[in-house]
Design goal:
The chain is mainly alpha-helical. The chain has one domain (4-254). Helices cover 64% and strands 7% of the residues. The chain has helices spanning 16-40, 44-69, 71-76, 89-106, 111-136, 168-187, 195-211, 230-254; strands at 4-8, 12-15, 150-151, 164-165, 222-224, 228-229. It has a two-stranded antiparallel sheet with strand order 1-2. A two-stranded antiparallel ribbon has the order 3-4. A hairpin with a 3-residue loop joins strand 1 (4-8) and strand 2. The longest helix has 26 residues, at 44-69. It is globular.
Length: 255
């Protein structure tokens, strides 16, 4: 749509994707700060350290998973991994989980309740990130001439130009927003610690698997060509592991 939000002469450019990521990060930090101060009396430095660790983990994880989408290409073009373009959300998420576990244990924070807080935080940040994707044209859909189709015309967009496409970025943003609302409702009704976080993983993995059907950025690759994408395969693993831990935690905490 509009990859560049605005420019000031030839010296300063604000890109839409980066702008929405920053807005999401600010909103996420605000939510975590409020929740952790309310329940665990944390200070702002602790939250800043947490987000710095998660930022590094997300970048590394996103790039590692990007490499494994096309190892032969990136082995020969390693510099392509070092650009600001190209991240795999699942890589970022799966690298951030052990980073959070390490941080919470080190700081003496309750792990499972903190993961529940971070589930809602992830929805907040990710929602704005997907809006940024829409503005930049990345994570675009397949060609479609339906009533909700969008057409990208800005040459700076990463989507195919002048072709009606499924607005998969908006599908994702809507899905993430809906999941966030479900988690907020569950927040006051949960029966065990960790329930919100695991519910997030299950709901997101299911939704992501469905949206993958309409994705047109085929560079993400397939496990079974034309049938099961890398993200769908990872979603299956995430759902399987999440259901196992959901049942295990519920049994251990509720008897």
């Amino acid at each position: 749509m509009h990859p560049v939000l605005f420019e000031i002469g030839d010296f300063f450019t604000v890109y839409s994707y980066g702008f929405f990521i920053v807005i999401g990060a600010i909103a996420g930090i605000t939510y975590v700060t409020y929740q952790t101060r309310k329940h665990y009396n944390t200070n702002f430095d602790t939250i800043n350290s947490l987000f710095l660790l998660l930022l590094i983990s997300a970048i590394v994880g996103g790039k590692v998973f990007l490499f494994f989408e096309n190892p032969s290409y990136y082995a020969d073009n390693f510099s392509k991994l070092l650009t600001g373009k190209g991240f795999v959300f699942y890589g970022s998420l799966l690298f951030c989980i052990p980073a959070m576990l390490y941080f919470f244990k080190k700081k003496g924070l309750p792990v499972l309740p903190m993961l529940d807080i971070m589930a809602i935080t992830t929805c907040i940040v990710h929602f704005f990130g997907r809006i940024g994707c829409f503005m930049a044209g990345c994570c675009h859909g397949i060609e479609w001439h339906g009533p909700l189709a969008v057409t990208f015309t800005d040459p700076a967009c990463l989507a195919p130009l002048n072709t009606p496409l499924h607005p998969t970025q908006l599908y994702s943003a809507s899905m993430i927003g809906f999941i966030g609302l479900i988690l907020l409702i569950l927040k006051n009704k949960k029966s065990f610690d960790g329930q919100i976080f695991i519910s997030y993983l299950i709901l997101y993995a299911i939704g992501r698997s469905i949206i993958e059907i309409f994705r047109g950025d085929i560079s993400r690759g397939y496990v079974i060509e034309g049938w099961v994408s890398h993200s769908q395969f990872i979603s299956f693993l995430v759902i399987s592991a999440s259901v196992y831990f959901y049942l295990k935690l519920r049994k251990s905490q509720t008897g």
